[in-house]
Design goal:
It is a single chain. The chain is α/β, with parallel strands linked by helices. The protein has 2 domains: 11-274, 3-Layer(aba) Sandwich (Rossmann fold), CATH 3.40.50.720; 297-404, SCP2 sterol-binding domain (Nonspecific Lipid-transfer Protein, Chain A, 2-Layer Sandwich). It contains 15 helices and 12 strands. The chain has a 7-stranded parallel beta sheet with strand order 3-2-1-4-5-6-7, with helices on both faces. Helix 4 (114-139) packs parallel to helix 6 (165-184) and helix 8 crosses helix 9 (244-250). InterPro entries: HSDL2, NAD(P)-bd_dom_sf, SCP2_sterol-bd_dom, SCP2_sterol-bd_dom_sf, SDR_fam. Belongs to the short-chain dehydrogenases/reductases (SDR) family. It is found in: Mitochondrion; Peroxisome.
Length: 406
């Protein structure tokens, strides 16, 4: 689609490129005719994770790039050094480093085993640091060198630390590499960070979220497109912490539904298509029974709420609601009617909730379909409310408007 191939002949050294985001970035560059060094540790087929450095290499060559698969566990400095030397011997240099290899465990301090702490610190912080250090002498010789770390903007709000302290420290360690190296090599090498606005659907995500998680995720394409955008900018573009969607909006992308696994359109045709796709998906996954699971009533309710969100609701409500649901399909959900154009989702809200409501998931669905009045639920003890009561009452008003849709 590009009038000219901006990364043609460039050499990219990508850690963790055998699957997921790393591979998606590799394939996007391969279409331009780039050389890709696949620096990843999966050389033999993994029992549960798809792809090896060799299958990735085949896909990269098929897409129009040149591939050099190298077995690299970024915890082993010698493996990094060997791969970098081999890359330089094969392609004559290195123009771009993508630090994508990452280990994740979203666990609390007491639940995180020491070996997991070591893994996250060694892969995420130390691995990124050493790979950057090893590539830098070659990057400095390139015409338009870039380092891109897949890591978040550093927000020191305790919210981002409290549920998974070790993981956050390790990812912020990668972001600190951006902060330091961008300044240290200013004018010589661009160093930036890229992070998704919403969860990206990869094998790692399936492990974390279990079945059905992809509904709330975007395809890897959005990260690959954003990465391409950064890597084709001049090296004066440095020290930035970029969110994929924000960058692509600036570049003129309007339709983000294209990146959704389950696009957020509520019309039935799309629904039918999605359920056909879902059936195909669940049949192609050999994990467990091959029935396509419909959305649970709770998830369905939130999907409708999401669809009904409006600037007006947000303006008039100005509250963040958290729901603690017990029973089938329970868990923590939220409705944010405070920030921007509002959002809903599974898990804790992005900002502290003003109101926390606890009830059974069955009663929740009844409440949102107009079969149970919140006041009645509260009086009869089916609904417990903590926090701002005035906001709790505002939600009831919104419900009556919503019921027509549900």
């Amino acid at each position: 689609s590009l009038p000219f191939r901006k990364l043609a002949g460039c050499t990219l050294f990508i850690t963790g490129a055998s699957r997921g985001i790393g591979k998606a970035i590799a394939l996007k560059a391969a279409k331009d005719g780039a050389n890709i060094v696949i620096a990843a540790k999966t050389a033999e087929t993994h029992p549960t994770l798809p792809g090896t450095i060799y299958t990735a290499a085949a896909e990269i060559e098929a897409a129009g790039g040149k591939a050099l698969p190298c077995i690299v566990n970024v915890r082993e400095e010698q493996q990094i050094i060997n791969a970098v030397e081999k890359a330089v011997k094969t392609f004559g240099g290195i123009d771009i480093l993508v630090n994508n290899a990452s280990a994740i465990s979203l666990t609390g301090t007491l639940e995180t085993e020491t070996k997991k702490v070591n893994l996250m610190m060694e892969v995420n912080v130390r691995g990124t640091y050493l790979t950057s250090k090893t590539c830098l002498p070659y990057l400095r010789k390139s015409r338009n060198p870039h380092i891109l770390n897949l890591s978040p903007p550093m927000n020191l709000n305790p919210l981002w630390f409290k549920n998974h302290c070790a993981y956050t420290i390790s990812k912020y360690g990668m972001s600190m590499c951006v902060l330091g190296m961008a300044e240290e090599f200013r004018g010589e090498v661009a160093v930036n960070a890229l992070w998704p606005k919403t969860a990206i659907h990869t094998a790692a995500m399936d492990m974390l979220g279990g079945a059905g998680i992809e509904k709330q995720c975007r395809k890897t394409d959005i990260i690959a497109d954003a990465a391409y955008c950064i890597l084709t900018k001049p090296k004066s573009f440095t020290g930035n912490f970029i969110i994929d969607e924000d960058l692509l909006r600036e570049e003129g992308v309007k339709d983000f539904d294209a990146y959704a696994i389950a696009p957020g359109k509520a019309d039935l045709e799309d629904e039918k298509e999605a359920s056909k796709e879902e059936k195909k998906l669940s049949e192609s996954h050999q994990e467990g029974p091959s029935e396509a699971k419909a959305l649970s009533p709770v998830a369905e309710t939130f999907r409708v709420i999401q669809g009904a969100m409006s600037e007006e609701y947000v303006r008039t409500t100005q509250g963040v609601y958290q729901f603690e649901l017990s029973g089938d399909e329970g868990g923590t959900w939220y409705i944010d009617l405070k920030t921007k154009s509002g959002s809903v989702g599974f898990g804790k809200p992005p900002v502290t909730a003003d109101v926390v409501m606890s009830m059974s998931s069955t009663d929740f669905v009844k409440m949102f379909t107009g079969k149970l009045k919140p006041t009645m639920a509260f009086m009869s003890g089916k609904l417990r409310i903590k926090g701002n009561m005035a906001l709790a009452i505002k939600l009831e008003k919104m419900l009556s408007k919503l019921n027509s849709k549900l």
